[in-house]
Amino acid sequence: MKIIIKSFQELNTTELYKILQLRSEVFVVEQDCVYQDIDDKDQKSLHVFGIKKDKIVAYTRIFKPSDYFNNASIGRVVVLNSERKYGFGHDIMKASITAIKNQFNTDKITISAQTYLQKFYESHGFKKIGEEYLEDGIPHIEMLRN
Question: In the chain, which end has fewer C-beta atoms inside a 10 angstrom radius, N or C?
Fold first, then answer.
């Protein structure tokens, strides 16, 4: 999988379409969650995506401090269902953490994680802070990486 990082303005229409298609396929259809994915935050984030055979199979968006949380942040972490067995979730998270360090010069990252993925995020140095809450009907927890 090849990792690419682009600002919103650098994305071409095909890349943007494929990113939105992947997010919709997993977050709306697979997770059966009706929510507003297009939220006016894409324009201020950097888009980290993994390509395999000309297909976007993994994706995150990252934010500089104060654009989402007080700290830098990673959101919309997604891997195509058929590609999860290859460890691309770990690859895209490592790339996102490195991009935050390189682009925003910080190691402090806050995320809003789906609760069932707590151990996955802990394997990348995140720790749970606070209590579980519902976001779009799905249990989430806030997590911090220092």
Answer: C
